[in-house]
Amino acid sequence: MASGMTWGRGFFRLWALGALLWICGIGWLKFEAIAAFAVPPPMPPGPCREVGSDATALQIAQCDALQRARRRRETHEAAQAATLALAPPLALLALGFAIRWVGAGFRPPRA
Hints:
Elements (H helix, E strand, L loop, with lengths): L6 H23 L1 H8 L8 H4 L6 H49 L6
């Protein structure tokens, strides 16, 4: 086993721990948005609840449009949460690889 410190392995482990904490933190903060996407809550009381077999085509169309708009909003919020959770750790990983690549250019060639 080498006695020297392995900087690359140490920084990767630090990144992995930071990424895990970041993703868990965003999941905790955005839990409601993620849960609403996974399991949509029931429709709130209102005219759509009262639409029955005697509903007009306009009432049914309005309720369908309301439900589609609500689902789109939930999907958008869940996508935002996923982007916020994953983009910063992946950008930091890419930055680390870029710095490593640049640093490798300054090393003398091996004989």
